[in-house]
Design goal:
The complex is a heterodimer. Chain A is an all-alpha fold. Chain A contains 16 helices and 2 strands. Helices cover 82% and strands 1% of the residues of chain A. In chain A, a hairpin with a 3-residue loop joins β1 and β2. In chain A, α5 packs antiparallel against α6 and α6 packs across α9. Chain A is globular. By secondary structure, chain B is mainly α. In chain B, 70% of the residues lie in helices and 6% in strands. In chain B, β9 and β10 form a beta hairpin. The chains are: A mainly alpha, B mainly alpha. Chains A and B meet through α2, α3, α4, α5 and α6 of A and α2, α3, α4, α15 and α16 of B.
Chain lengths: 352, 457
């Protein structure tokens, strides 16, 4: 196993996906909790969620664009392949992204508070639910090796001659659906855990603490279900996750982190819970990457075989390093301004 | 509708939609920063009010621009996988840089919009400057990538396989300087006249807060007028570059159908099948003189390439005329603005709120910048057809093999029409219904206040 330039680029992409999951994933989760806000503090829950999302969601969202740009720059054949074979779910996901972003802004920025606005709230939260499921289904389809790359366009047509077989059946598997639900549960867990820190009253913190604990259970159940289904639908995943020390290390670390998250939530150590759950989510992403390494496009195409010419990889990596040098301090500043615990949150001092 | 036509229509519609928001994302931050800077220097509360009002409108437009831009980054592959497979590594630089510029813009826009009371005034102003600069840069980078499609360079193609990639050379391709300049000026000019027109309407319709709208019109014109007056020079440069790099696109936009001395054709409808122009006025030899300094000089016409290599010249010529026409009308308004300002300085004329002919001219011409931008993009994109990469890859060879593309085309069309209606509705309420009264207290755009209110209803 030799780490070469394409591997470094692929690793960087995994880090970007991790950032997307930890930041934008939590934003999606916020939409889920907005949709099923309930109990006596229903309204306050929604306010906390909107306040937490407002300043950061657009920046969080850009991680996805970064991943896409890296994919088409550095692994163009993979990008072309994915966007051809997963045309239908990706298009649906895009519609979800558009509806969600615009609905959130329409709701937040309108001056008249009326029924029209409330309907945008519903669009925002509905799109927050189905977009992560579709994202997860796309990932599940790739991991399972359901959309192999063929040598020629003709071979692809021979393998799945009908529209239904090629563009629908490939990603409509129970395993892919399980991964979709896992994504949704994970995003909800992230959001609920983060919101325990954002909430300003003890009652609200308790609301989100309960939600975080239930989501942990959901993540565990769906993950177990996905593994069961994988025995039939995705033997490659099962093989990767059950053999060798790599698998043992991955599974045990993720389980330990999940347990730490539950313990921290249970004992109301919210900052610690946030760290543990974020680490758990990161390990799930890395586990996915590590499980299919060195394959990029299962079942057969490796990172090396899909990489763009070296000149491109060097320039993109150079741009990334230079860009990150600007980006990280900017992000740090953004979160310092809006997420630091020592200050009252925007809601409070906007009216001061 | 064939799959190719559906794919082209979807791409055209998505770009036409996104470009409006992208342009506003370049122009509005500059306006907000100028207003806030004036408040910072003079303490004039109207300027602060303006900066806040504008930032609310910008937030709505920026969000739609961000999501429609995300759609485009996917659509390039969803519709043109073969193109991206070959072009992706070559045009990687401008797209990666654009990613970071956009990232920076999104981060600092968040700080700008929500940070009024959380950071110092200077830090806030600086955040606005970062938004304006990174917005301009991200626009420039994307245009570099588009320019590459017009003047592909920075690689060697051996039997369809791309080798010897030089991303930097691809980014700084021959078409990039003229395209970037033309687009940037267009962005500032179009946003400026639109904003000036909206606030001029505020002055025409009511006098409740004339000082608010007056300041708005002035700042908007300060940004728009230089851009509009420079645009003809940039257009001249662009035309010469196109004539050099893409002679057939040039022939189409000029309606120069037969190789020989080229006339300037004003108006008229081109029939590209019969190679005739119906109607219109010809100034013989004008284009030959413009390009070569000799009215008799031979310029390659549309007929210099086989039929299958010709763009639909009718649309291209029409769009070009529309763009130039809008630009000329705006140049006239810009010249009027300068003349008016000069007279006012010498103590003549009436103050802006009472200069109704001028205000009505601003109102009437306010959409022309955006119309010119859409028309200009039609010229550059349709004028390049049938190529997706000039001379190297045909659009028909780049399209996805997935059938039924008319379905996503209709879906996105419906979605974007709905969004457009909603955005216009929200901006209408934002600007006209409330722009005439001062903001209550000094309240910044507060998400929680809004949300709370919503939920209470």
């Amino acid at each position: 196993m030799i780490w070469t330039l394409p591997h470094v680029v692929a690793g960087t992409m995994v880090l970007s996906i991790t950032a997307y999951v930890l930041l934008a994933g939590a934003d999606f989760g916020g939409g889920v909790w907005d949709l099923i806000a309930s109990g006596p503090r229903k309204k306050q829950q929604r306010v906390v969620i909107a306040d937490a999302l407002g300043p950061v969601w657009e920046a969080n969202h850009v991680w996805l664009i970064l991943v896409v740009v890296m994919l088409f720059s550095c692994f163009p054949a993979m990008y072309a392949h994915l966007s051809t074979e997963l045309h239908v779910p990706l298009t649906l996901m895009l519609i979800g992204i558009v509806l969600r972003g615009s609905a959130f802004t329409f709701r937040s920025y309108d001056l008249q508070r009326d029924a029209v606005q409330q309907r945008w709230g519903l669009v925002f939260s509905m799109a927050s639910v189905f977009t992560p499921v579709l994202l997860g289904m796309c990932i599940g389809t790739v991991v399972a090796g359901n959309i192999p790359m063929y040598e020629s366009p003709e071979a692809a047509v021979r393998a799945s001659p009908t529209f239904f077989a090629r563009y629908i059946q490939s990603w409509c598997t129970l395993f892919a659906l399980a991964i979709g639900l896992l994504t949704l549960a994970l995003f909800s867990l992230l959001a609920a855990t983060y919101l325990t820190v954002e909430a300003k009253t003890a009652e609200l913190r308790e609301d989100f603490r309960r939600r975080a604990l239930w989501s942990t259970l959901a993540v565990a159940l769906v993950a177990a279900l996905a593994l069961l289904l994988a025995r039939r639908d995705a033997p490659l995943v099962v093989a990767a996750l059950t053999a060798g020390t790599r698998a043992v290390v991955l599974l045990s670390s993720t389980t330990l982190l999940a347990a730490a998250g539950v313990w921290a939530l249970w004992t109301r150590r919210f900052i610690l819970a946030r760290v543990a759950v974020a680490a758990e989510a990161s390990f799930i992403v890395w586990g996915w990457a590590w499980a299919q390494y060195p394959l990029m496009m299962p079942p057969s195409r490796t990172i090396d075989s899909l990489a763009a010419p070296r000149a491109t990889l060097w320039w993109v990596m150079g741009t990334l390093i230079a860009g990150t040098a600007i980006l990280l301090p900017s992000f740090f500043y953004l979160f310092k301004v809006f997420k630091s615990a020592d200050r009252p949150f925007a809601a409070a001092d906007d009216h001061a | 509708m064939s799959d190719l036509l559906a794919a082209r229509s979807q791409m055209a519609m998505s770009l036409a939609f996104h470009i409006l928001f992208a342009v506003v994302g370049m122009g509005m931050p500059a306006l907000m920063v100028i207003a806030e800077w004036r408040w910072y220097r003079t303490g004039n509360a109207v300027m602060l009010d303006l900066a806040k009002r504008w930032s609310k409108g910008t937030a709505i437009l920026f969000a739609v621009g961000a999501v429609s831009g995300t759609v485009l980054s996917f659509e390039l592959g969803l519709l043109w996988p073969t193109f991206m497979q070959h072009a992706g590594p070559v045009v990687s630089m401008p797209f990666s840089l654009e990613g970071f510029a956009f990232f920076t813009e999104a981060i600092f826009l968040g700080i700008y919009l929500y940070g009024w009371k959380r950071i110092s005034t200077r830090a806030h102003l600086a955040a606005g400057v970062v938004v304006a600069v990174s917005g301009a840069l991200s626009g420039a980078f994307v245009v570099c990538a588009n320019a590459w499609m017009n003047a592909p360079t920075g690689f060697t193609s051996v039997g369809g396989v791309v080798t010897d990639v030089q991303p930097l050379a691809a980014m700084f391709n021959a078409a990039a300087p003229s395209e970037v300049l033309h687009m940037m000026l267009a962005a500032y000019g179009a946003t400026g006249v639109m904003v000036a027109g909206i606030h001029a309407y505020g002055l025409v319709r009511n006098t409740l807060r004339p000082e608010f709208h007056r300041a708005a019109v002035q700042i908007a014109l300060i940004m728009a007028v230089p851009a509009i007056l420079l645009q003809p020079l940039s257009g001249d440069y662009s035309a010469r570059e196109v004539a050099k790099l893409q002679p057939i696109k040039f022939a189409a936009l000029d309606a120069h159908l037969h190789t020989g001395p080229a006339a300037l054709v004003v108006g008229g409808w081109v029939n590209e099948h019969t190679l005739t122009v119906r109607g219109g006025v010809e100034i013989p030899g004008a284009i030959s003189f413009f390009l070569r300094g000799n009215a008799e000089a031979v310029v390659n016409g549309l007929d210099s390439v086989p039929v299958e290599d010709r763009p639909p010249a009718g649309i291209v010529h029409l769009a070009f005329q529309l763009m130039v026409g809008c630009g000329l009308v705006l140049a006239f308004v810009a010249a009027w603005t300068v003349w008016r300002a000069w007279r006012r300085r010498r103590g003549h004329g009436v103050p802006l709120p009472r200069d109704r002919p001028f205000l009505w001219a601003l109102v009437a011409t306010s959409p022309l910048g955006f119309i010119a931008i859409e028309a200009g993009w039609t010229v550059t994109e349709v004028g390049r057809q049938p190529w997706i990469v000039q001379g190297l890859m045909r659009t028909a060879d780049a399209v996805t093999p997935m059938p039924g593309l008319v379905v996503p085309f209709i879906a996105f069309t419906v979605l974007y029409i709905a969004l457009s209606v909603m955005v216009l509705f929200l901006l209408w309420r934002q600007i006209l219904k409330t722009g005439v009264t001062p903001l209550r207290g000094d309240a910044p755009p507060s998400i929680s206040a809004t949300t709370e209110f919503t939920l209470r209803r």
